[in-house]
Amino acid sequence: MTQEPPATLRLRPHPNAQGRLVLLHGWGADADDLLMLGEVLAQDTQPPLELVSLQAPEPHPQGIGRQWYGLFPPDWSAVPAAQQQLKSRLQALATDGIPLQSTVVLGFSQGAAMALATGCDLPLAGLIACSGYPHPGWTAPAQRPPVLLIHGEHDDVVPCTAANELRQRLEGGLSTVQLERFNGGHTIPESVFPSIKKALDVWLSSTRHED
Question: Which of 13, 76, 78, 208 has the smallest number of CB atoms closer than 10 Å to its CB?
Answer without folding.
Answer: 13
